[in-house]
Amino acid sequence: MTEPAIITDDVNSLDPVHPALTATSAEQAPLRVWKFWGTALWGLLVFVAMFVGQVGAILLLVALRALPLDMASIQSVGHEPQALALSVIMGLPATLAAVWLAIRIKKASFVDYLALRWPAWRQLLLGAAGLILVVMAWEIVSRSLGREATPGFMTDLLKSGRDKGAALSLLFAFSVAAPMSEEVLARGFLFRGWSASFLRVPGAIILSSLVWTAVHLQYDLYFLAEVFSIGLWFGYMRHRANSLWLTIVLHALNNMTAVVLTMWLGE
User: Fold this and answer.
1) DSSP label at 219?
2) CA 229, CA 214: separation in Å to the nearest integer?
3) CB within 8 A of 185, min separation 6: which ones?
4) How far is CA 194 from each of CA 66, 121, 177, 188, 225, rounded to the nearest angstrom?
5) How many H helices and E strands in the chain?
6) What residues contact residue 4 under an 8 Å CB cut-off, 6+ apart?
7) The three-state (H, E, C) secondary structure of 17-68, written as one string
8) 3-state class of 6 per DSSP?
9) Distance between CA atoms of 223 and 59, rounded to whole angstroms?
10) How does pLDDT run along the chain (267 residues), one tens digit per residue?
11) How far apart are CA 111 and CA 103, in angstroms?
């Protein structure tokens, strides 16, 4: 984080009776953050809020259609591309609200706590280059093992969404809403608190990447390993650039590329 500027009164600085006044920005005071256990507990609550927001969207659709409120109806509606897109989208406001509450209790700045600063272009280019290398490395491994590069159920979902007119909804859900929700939780809230604890930055990068990987338990172990490696790169860039916007953009670009290739260019 850059050092805050000190504002001086040039007129008063020339008056020996009235010495120069100085004012520092709020960033000069130490940022109050949740440490390890506080971050872990609040992180769990944030995840629950995200889950409730997502499931709530499905329950709302079930109620609007006057379907019986049972697991069969929930699963049936939840498998529809349009409903799934709405579910992912509704997880975002729930996540932001829970994180805002946690930060508000600490009386800290939401922007500073999450490092919501636009990165330098060289950091953005470095982050994109590293992401491309990681993804290409996994692509080579997938081909050498004869594995699919994208989980089969995701391919089926995206192509079904394209055919049923839900392409734009899915694109927004996976390229905007999901990256923002997941990055605010993992590289935003969790990284901030854990990096200020005994874990320090390396431990925070690893643990937040593990949590982010756990959010994708619908994948098999191979794809989970890929997610974890990407998470490590995102965590490193979050620390290096001190910018959550950087990882949000990288995450969005990664997901957008996968969605577009699968929907319109994949065989």
Assistant:
1) S
2) 13
3) 43, 46, 47, 50, 95, 99, 211, 212, 215
4) 45, 27, 24, 10, 22
5) 12, 2
6) 24, 25, 27, 28
7) CCCCCEEECHHHCCCCCCCHHHHHHHHHHHHHHHHHHHHHHHHHHHHHCCCC
8) strand
9) 29
10) 444 443 344 434 344 444 444 444 444 578 899 999 999 999 999 999 999 999 999 999 999 999 998 898 898 998 899 999 999 999 999 999 999 999 999 999 999 999 999 999 999 999 999 999 999 999 999 999 988 877 877 888 888 888 888 899 999 999 999 999 999 999 999 999 999 999 999 999 999 999 999 999 989 999 999 999 999 999 999 999 999 999 999 999 999 999 998 887 754
11) 10
Q: Which of 7, 39, 26 is nearest to 186 (CA)?
A: 39
Single-letter amino acid code for the residue at 115? A
Cβ neighbors of 202 (< 8 A, separation 6 or more) are: none
Q: Could you tell me if 115 and 240 are in contact, meaning their C-beta atoms sit under 8 angstroms apart?
A: no
Q: Name the one residue in this structure whose structure tokens are 């905007």.
A: 176
pTM reported for the whole predicted model: 0.86
Report the distance separating Cα 83 and Cα 31, nearest Å. 40
Closest CA to 183 of 46, 24, 26, 20: 46
Q: Are 113 and 107 in contact (CB under 8 A)?
A: no
3-state SS class at 7 = strand
Residue type, 105: I
